[in-house]
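Supplementary Text 2. Reproducibility record for the structural model of the 345-residue chain.

All settings were left at their defaults, and a single model was retained for analysis rather than an ensemble. We include the record here because the model underlies the residue-level annotations in Supplementary Table 4.
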Amino acid sequence: MKKKLAITPNVETLFGTRDENLHIMEDGLNVTIHMYSDSIGIEGATESVARAEQIFTDFEYLRKAGHTFHNGDLGSLLRVMMADKTATLRGLAEAAKSRAQGGKRVVQPKSANQRKYLEMIANHDMVFGIGPAGTGKTYLAVAMAVSALLSKQVSRIVLARPAVEAGERLGFLPGTLQEKVDPYLRPLYDALYDLMEPEKVDRCLEKNIIEIAPIAFMRGRTLNDAFIIMDEAQNTTHEQMKMFVTRLGNNAKAVITGDVTQIDLPHKKSGLLEAMDVLKDVKGIGFTIFDDSDVVRHQLVQRIIRAYDEHKERTSRQLALDLEETLPVKPKTERTGSGTPIIEQ
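Retained model, structure tokens:
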């Protein structure tokens, strides 16, 4: 099937840098897109051509509605659409806009797993987001928390994180208790200031509407009407994890994020690894597992994570081979009719 569509003003934004968005559509829908001076030609199977046409129609609707796309957001949405046949450009864009709810910026899912993660947070009271660095686990959780606060679904946000150093010992830190723990919680502050106006963040922190604290401060509390996030959960102990997941009160939602490849606990089993096994079949708890294809930082980060995973796999295989070679060979034994073993030398 062939279809020609007239080019409308500013539709070139849909093409992307070096027509990268058109290439995403061509690869994902198995169509060929031709560009003419006054129109776009789409060639392929009837269903695929119809879906490509719908993308152009949705883009035109969003453009007229004043929707703008930044920093490769459009390409990310198209990749999500290619992974989910039921998704539409208009639906994804409007869902992201509704999540902003007065925040400083609109947060778009940049992969199918990110979209699943956001939907899971919306539909579950407790969600685990597990995966490598740069997959947006913490940032998206904070974005959903900010949206819930500004739309008055909850009355406060509680952000917690275990105060574990990443392979180094910083010694005693000066200042008040809050000043001592703030360096550990910096990533949470960064996400908040990126999603809300700085003045509003400062006011919420002063009034304790937004509370940022180490996980040790959670003991003995019941958190009602709150959106609670625990970051870097791989560095919790068994006791800390059990204590945190039992803090959930009425009208509360909890998101636990972590990367099981970055455990900094000295000589202790991660509470996150245990929780993944213990809670996997508990109704009402959702799990989203990210992989290196979900990394939304610099493209180099994705390749670095993949290289480390491959190195770990090679090392494990070599260790198994070395161990096999060093193990002593057990002598074969046979039993005589009287039951006495005969050892072959």
